[in-house]
C-alpha cells in the first residue's frame, strides 16, 4: 500500500511538473526540466525497476513491431495518399536532409515514450492493477501534454492508449517511437500548418 501511495504522489508530481514546465517554466526556469528528469530517474531506483521493465533491451522488440506494423502502415499510407492528392508530399520529402530530420524525430519520440511508458504507464499499472484503466489514464495524460493543439490532442489520446497497451504486452520502447515518429512526421508535412501549428503545444501553439 505504501508503494501504491508513493506511486500516486510521483505521478501527480511529475504530471504537474511537466504541465508547469510547458506553460511557464520553460521560459523562466528551463533547468527545471533536468530536475524533473532527475526525479523521474530516481523513482526507478526507489521502485527497483528492471531495465526490461522500462522498455530497454531486445525483449519484446519483434512483438511490438508486429503489433504496430499494420496500423502504422495503414495510417502512413493514408497520409501519403492525402499528401499526394493535396500536392503537399513531394519527392523532396525523401531527401537525406528530411530523413535525418526523421531520425531526430525518432529520438524525440523515444524520449517521450520513455517518460510516458517507463514512468507513467508503469506507475499507473502499479496503482490500478488493471491494464485497460492504466492505458486510458496514460492516454489522457499524454493528450494533456499537447493542449491546446486541436489536432495533436485527439491523436495523442488515441495513440497514447494504443501505444500503452502495446508497451504493457511487449515492454519495448523502440517500436512505439518508430510508429510515433513516422506518423508525426507525415502529419506535419501532409496537413496544413494552420491545423497543427508546427506540432507545437502550450503557449508555443499561439506563435
Which spans of ≥5 residues are poorly predicted at pLDDT below 50? none
Helix proportion of residues, in percent? over 70%
Q: Helical stretch count?
A: 8
Could you tell me the number of beta strands? 0
Largest sheet: none
**Radius of gyration, whole Å:** 17 Å
List SSEs in N-to-C order: HHHHHHHH
Shape: globular
Structural class: mainly alpha
Overview of this structure, please?
- The protein is mostly helical and 207 residues long.
- The chain has one domain.
- 75% of the residues lie in helices and 0% in strands.
- The chain has helices at 2-28, 32-46, 61-86, 96-128, 131-144, 152-170, 174-190, 193-196.
- Helix 1 packs antiparallel against helix 4.
- The chain starts with a helix and ends in an 11-residue tail after the last helix.
- The model has no long low-confidence stretch (mean pLDDT 93).
How are the secondary structure elements laid out?
Elements: H1 2-28, H2 32-46, H3 61-86, H4 96-128, H5 131-144, H6 152-170, H7 174-190, H8 193-196
Helix pairs in contact: 1-2, 1-4, 3-6, 3-7, 4-5, 4-6, 4-7, 5-6
Sum this structure up briefly:
The protein is built from eight helices and no strands.
Offer a few descriptive terms.
single chain, 207 residues, mainly alpha, 8 helices
Amino acid at each position: 500500500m505504501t508503494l501504491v501511495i508513493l506511486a500516486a504522489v510521483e505521478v501527480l508530481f511529475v504530471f504537474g511538473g511537466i504541465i508547469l514546465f510547458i506553460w511557464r517554466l520553460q521560459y523562466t526556469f528551463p533547468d527545471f526540466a533536468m530536475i524533473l528528469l532527475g526525479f523521474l530517474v530516481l523513482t526507478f531506483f526507489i521502485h527497483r525497476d528492471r531495465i526490461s521493465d522500462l522498455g530497454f533491451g531486445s525483449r519484446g522488440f519483434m512483438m511490438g513491431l508486429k503489433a504496430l506494423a499494420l496500423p502504422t502502415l495503414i495510417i502512413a499510407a493514408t497520409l501519403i495518399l492525402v499528401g499526394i492528392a493535396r500536392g503537399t508530399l513531394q519527392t523532396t520529402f525523401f531527401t537525406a536532409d528530411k530523413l535525418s530530420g526523421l531520425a531526430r524525430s525518432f529520438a524525440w519520440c523515444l524520449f517521450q515514450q520513455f517518460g510516458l511508458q517507463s514512468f507513467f504507464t508503469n506507475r499507473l499499472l502499479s496503482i490500478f492493477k488493471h491494464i485497460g484503466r492504466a492505458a486510458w489514464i496514460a492516454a489522457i495524460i499524454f493528450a494533456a501534454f499537447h493542449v491546446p493543439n486541436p489536432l495533436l490532442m485527439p491523436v495523442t489520446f488515441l495513440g497514447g492508449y494504443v501505444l500503452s497497451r502495446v508497451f504493457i504486452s511487449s515492454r519495448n520502447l523502440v517500436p512505439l517511437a518508430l510508429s510515433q515518429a513516422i506518423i508525426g512526421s507525415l502529419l506535419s508535412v501532409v496537413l496544413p500548418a494552420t491545423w497543427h501549428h508546427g506540432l507545437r503545444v502550450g503557449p508555443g501553439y499561439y506563435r
